[in-house]
Protein 1
Amino acid sequence: MPANLTKREIVLEIYEKTGFSQKEIVNTVQMTLDIVMRALSEGRNVELRNFGVLEVQKRKSRIGRNPNKPLNKVVIPERAVVKFKSGKILKQMLKKLDISQL
């Protein structure tokens, strides 16, 4: 299974391609992530053309079970979750992915 992509790897790749200082890149990447998080926390969807959409959805309250005590029912409260829908170009790229490597 391939390793996860980290924020540090993103910064290094941008640094190698642009020559901007790593400090500037770290600040820019973090500001971008902060803006995305703030928008989602305000209930706004984030649309990144060709990449995808981060969509805030409401999950209904439901009854769950405690895995350690399966006879006990637990109320899972209503909450907001983020769902990702891939964009057109990302979908095309994923079709080419060798899923036997996952």
Protein 2
Amino acid sequence: MRVTVGCCGYTVSRKLYYQKLAAVEVQTTFYRVVRESTLLKWRSEAPESFTFTLKAFQGVTHPRESPTWRRSNVRPSEGHGLLRLTEEVRDSWRVTMNACRALSAKVVVVQTPPAFKDSSINIETAKKFFSSVERDDVIIGFEPRGWSAESIKEVCEDTDVTHVTDLFVSLPVCVSTSSVAYFRLHGSPPGKRLYKYTYTDRDLFELAARLKEVNSRWAIVMFNNVTMFDDASRFVGVLQSMGCDVDQSMSK
């Protein structure tokens, strides 16, 4: 298995980041509509082999009541969010795909809010959304909150979408036909509080062992905790010490 390690966002200067890690999940694209020129600049600054992924614009997933809109440069409306095939959601998906093209992103993460409950109606809504939107060969990762494994599997298998999970919580219930597994590590478990946890060396070796249980040809591991850059850099070292096929940083 090929393994690519990165962080959910730049927590250090991009120059230093590219020297240490081989991938990043862009978070700004969730909160705001980012100028194409900005995204193209980031792509041009990065090494050619560097892997970009991104989080889908919140207009796709989050209703206007969500506090995350406070950071947006778009005024939310009743038609935004919850994977409904409204004009606003379709437009938000176009914004997301434009960002994917500018960055040559490999994966787009669709993270639904807790308000998007595990229900028969929302299962069908998710299936209709993923079955109808354009992809441009970009892998779609689905990260619902509070859903059962059975419901996630139904959506992902029926629409060829990858289940995004924290590997310390569970293995993915479905990996798309692209055979790319995608993990976001939020610091809990093993930490008691989300994000505010630094992974120990023992944790990182356990993480490497868990990756061997995943049936895919490529795994992308994104750290999303308070010490994510240091933890991700250390995890690259752990994988190297174990002789794993891990992507190397290739700074310009």
Protein 3
Amino acid sequence: MVDPSPLALFWAGVIALAIVAYVILDGFDIGVGVLFGTTRDEARRAEMMGSVAPFWDGNETWLVVVGASLFAAFPAAYAVLMGAFYMPVLLMLVGLIFRGVAFEFRYRSHRMRWLWDAGFAYGSTLVAFAQGAAVGAMMRGVPVENMQFAGGAFSWVHGFPVLTGIGLVLGYALLGACWMVLKTEGALQAWSYARIPWLVAGVFMILGLAFVWSLTIDPDAAQGARRLSGWGVAFPILSVLALLGVLLGARARRETVPMAMAAVFFVTAFLTLGVMFWPYMVPYAVTVGDAAAPDQALGFFLFAGVVVLPLIAVYTAGKYWIFRGKTDRGHVGVARGGR
């Protein structure tokens, strides 16, 4: 086991922050897509798409940052993870493509609108499920021999990853409902408020099932949980409290609280995974130090990172500042294809 250099730790931190940014920012617009499929009201659907229209494509920039940083800074981990999760990544990309196409074509092809509606809803659900299943498979451990993936194309298919896939679908839907509470008014906001308690209950149920499953049916899934000790136990406790905060904020009709607490839930859940996985980049086989590129290469990438990453952060912050406040009819018009 090689101790990670400061540069390796820096790039591991960049990847971690990019994952958190992606999960929260793209998570809410994926969640809106999941909820989009649960209603057939045309006005409601138009307002849903309008609430995320200015943001969705920029949010996916953080996924590109994750992939590019992993490829450049940790090539050994990239090779193993792509081999292990080729199918989930492919399914995720298919879902992202259908989501993007649906945004562009829904209001330009009235006869085929049913197809683009399905693409937006099912594509969003597929993206969330694929990401959640991959996380569940990593929690079970990735088989590695001689720094190469030692499993099969469907090694990730198991009961526990299916549960975590469903859990992330519900989690993203919860983020989406909280986003619409924050960004919309009137009927859609009330509709979103009404779904938050059910989604919180669904997330709690999946978390409970996954916990019982790991203790009784699939001991491999409990590998990470056995690594939680000391202060690390605080993160899952905070996750549960954050979920309760989402529920209480929704009941009190405090518009900003559900979204803030949902973000805290995902951050603390990610920190829980971080404690479970550390110091492994590929659980529980390849460490951060073993997977890192040479320091000369990491230092070279650093020059690009200190320029590009702040620009992405500033662009993201500026976009949310420009489109702050409630979604107006102009944004709905953009979703309808009006220019």
